[in-house]
């Protein structure tokens, strides 16, 4: 292809890309701009895109709100602990399935599919009954257990692909040099698979951070709500603090987007490895 | 953790519960019979079919284009990939609340755009004619990133030589896409379709939030209906909600199996 038409093509693609990016980001830009408006400016018609008076103090108001602090604590505790539990169980499980043949290995995709299908949403009534009878409504234990359980299969799935991509010869070479099976896992496989572990960890962290329906159902006590459920109380039939709702949402979304951007290079390979071939 | 609630769900669907949640004995299949008597059920079932079919079909069609775009190299590709991450990473409930605000009759920017374009403003989430469309648009918006990445992964497994061979045989442009790309993309399309089918059927926050203002069940899907029966409506009926939960799980199972059958069956003649 001639250089000239190639340049035009690249420019056209770039323009199309810019349009797509703008369309995807526009709603979140409105979120940020609304979070920066004083309350009085929310109720003007016709509505304006930009604030007349910029009010970054809204973010301080939210951060100093004791309710927001307690939602944030619940979200951080639940997402962190459930992610650690997922990794503790998924790393050995994934290593085992990647290195050993066992009956039913082929059924694994199906198992992952089934756990996705029996997502907490479909089972929420059963989950509620379960924790109601165990007396665990409004406890960290309940929310952490549910998040860990439902993210486990997906984490094993991602990790398995990373472990499987490590050539067996490296471990065999290590064995010749006197490295035992545990040594092979800790000194060879884990360091090489570190990007996979980070990817699986960030995925389960984000899933737990954004989880809504189980928290809505199991955490009925206002002080035990995570961010996703808590922030909705800024806008109800009685109070309408859209500015604070969006400031809180921005605070909740930004760290997750940054985490996600970190694993972006692995998304294309890691997410579908094994299923798309 | 996954199996026990499923067992509990089936057990609950066969029992009777007081409003405070105490088990009052088994009633056999009566919860299922009462579920079928609910007047809202046909409407809700139709809503669910429209919701799932339109969101999944449009998402896949648009994602095919987006994946194709991201598979090319052009200035600013990084930016597009990062932009695509945002709706994926943001919590669905926060995105849903954001769209409630954008759709607002008086203060939403969508109506501002409508008026600027010389059109009449609409009560997007309050008008029976527009509420489903408004929800579907948000459903598509949040499903695009994941679907695009799955299809992009599929595109990247297609080696460049296949296209060169195709060009020699006269299959370039649209013909190359139709006869080379699409058939080779079939496994990725299958994964994207099945996972979207499940996610969209089970999707809760969008319909829950955008349909919040409307009384009754006229715009609910099977999932939000189940939740309302159990926890929010005057019914407060755990047994009947559990029965609907069992029906939901079976429905999605049947839909996925049927889809896989059809997709495989069509694979053979090609």
Description of the molecule:
The complex is a heterodimer of chains A (277) and B (270). Chain A is mainly alpha-helical. Chain A has helices at residues 3-35, 57-64, 66-99, 108-117, 120-134, 140-164, 168-176, 181-192, 194-210, 213-218, 227-230, 242-272. The longest helix of chain A has 34 residues, at 66-99. The relative contact order of chain A is 0.13. Chain B is mainly α. The longest helix of chain B is centred in the first third of the chain and has 31 residues, at 41-71. Chain B is globular and about 75 Å long. The mean pLDDT of chain B is 86. The chains are: A mainly alpha (277), B mainly alpha (270).
Please outline what is shown here.
The complex is a heterodimer of chains A (277) and B (270). Chain A is 74% helix and 0% strand. Chain A has 12 helices and no strands.
SSE topology:
The complex is a heterodimer of chains A (277) and B (270).
Chain A: H1 3-35, H2 57-64, H3 66-99, H4 108-117, H5 120-134, H6 140-164, H7 168-176, H8 181-192, H9 194-210, H10 213-218, H11 227-230, H12 242-272
Chain B: H1 3-13, E1 15-17, E2 23-26, H2 30-37, H3 41-71, H4 77-89, H5 92-102, H6 109-116, H7 131-156, H8 160-168, H9 173-184, H10 186-202, H11 205-210, H12 222-232, H13 238-267
Helix pairs in contact in B: 1-13, 2-13, 3-7, 3-10, 4-7, 7-10, 10-13, 12-13
């Amino acid at each position: 292809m001639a250089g000239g038409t190639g340049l035009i093509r690249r420019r056209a693609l770039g323009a199309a890309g810019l349009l797509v990016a703008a369309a995807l980001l526009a709603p979140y830009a409105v979120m940020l701009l609304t979070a920066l408006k004083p309350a009085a400016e929310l109720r003007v018609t016709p509505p304006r895109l930009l604030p007349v008076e910029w009010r970054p103090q809204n973010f301080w108001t939210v951060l100093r709100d004791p309710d927001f602090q307690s939602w944030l604590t619940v979200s951080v505790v639940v997402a962190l602990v459930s992610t650690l539990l997922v990794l503790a169980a998924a790393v050995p499980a994934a290593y085992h399935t990647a290195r050993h043949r066992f009956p039913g290995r082929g059924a694994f995709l199906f198992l992952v599919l089934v756990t996705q299908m029996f997502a907490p949403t479909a089972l929420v009534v059963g989950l509620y009954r379960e924790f109601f009878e165990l007396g665990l409504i409004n406890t960290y234990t309940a929310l952490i257990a549910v998040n860990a359980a439902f993210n486990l299969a997906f984490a094993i799935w991602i990790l398995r692909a990373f472990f499987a991509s490590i050539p067996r010869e490296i471990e065999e070479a290590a064995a010749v040099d006197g490295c035992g099976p545990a040594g092979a896992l800790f000194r060879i496989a884990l360091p090489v698979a570190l990007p996979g572990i980070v990817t699986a960890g960030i995925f389960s962290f984000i899933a737990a951070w954004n989880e809504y329906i189980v928290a809505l159902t199991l955490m009925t006590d206002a002080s035990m709500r995570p961010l996703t459920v808590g922030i909705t109380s800024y806008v109800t039939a009685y109070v309408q603090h859209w500015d604070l709702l969006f400031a809180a949402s921005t605070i909740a979304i930004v760290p997750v987007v940054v985490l996600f951007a970190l694993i972006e290079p692995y998304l294309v390979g890691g997410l579908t490895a094994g299923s798309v071939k | 953790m996954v199996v026990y609630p499923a067992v509990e769900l089936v057990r609950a669907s066969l029992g009777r519960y007081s409003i405070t949640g105490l088990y009052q004995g088994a009633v056999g299949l009566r919860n299922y019979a009462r579920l079928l008597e609910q007047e809202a059920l046909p409407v809700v079932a139709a809503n669910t079919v429209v919701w799932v079919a339109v969101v999944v079909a449009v998402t896949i069609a648009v994602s095919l284009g987006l994946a194709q775009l991201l598979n090319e190299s052009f200035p600013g590709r990084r930016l597009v990939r990062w932009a695509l991450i945002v709706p994926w990473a943001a919590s669905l409930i926060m995105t849903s609340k954001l769209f409630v605000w954008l759709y607002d009759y008086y203060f939403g920017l969508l109506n501002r755009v409508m008026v600027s374009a010389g059109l009449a403003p609409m009560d997007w989430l309050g008008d029976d004619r527009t509420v489903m469309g408004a929800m579907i648009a948000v459903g598509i918006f949040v499903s695009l990133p994941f679907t695009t990445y799955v299809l992009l992964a599929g595109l990247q497994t297609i080696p460049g030589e296949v296209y060169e061979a195709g060009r020699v045989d006269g299959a370039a442009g649209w013909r190359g896409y139709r006869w080379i790309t699409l058939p080779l993309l079939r496994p990725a399309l299958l994964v994207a379709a099945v996972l979207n089918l499940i996610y969209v059927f089970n999707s809760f926050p969008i319909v829950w939030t955008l349909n919040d203002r409307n009384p009754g069940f006229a715009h609910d899907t099977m999932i939000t209906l189940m939740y309302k029966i159990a926890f929010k409506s005057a019914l407060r009926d755990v047994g009947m909600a559990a029965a609907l939960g069992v029906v939901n799980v079976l429905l999605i199972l049947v839909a996925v199996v049927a889809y896989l059958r059809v997709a495989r069956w069509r694979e053979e003649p090609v």
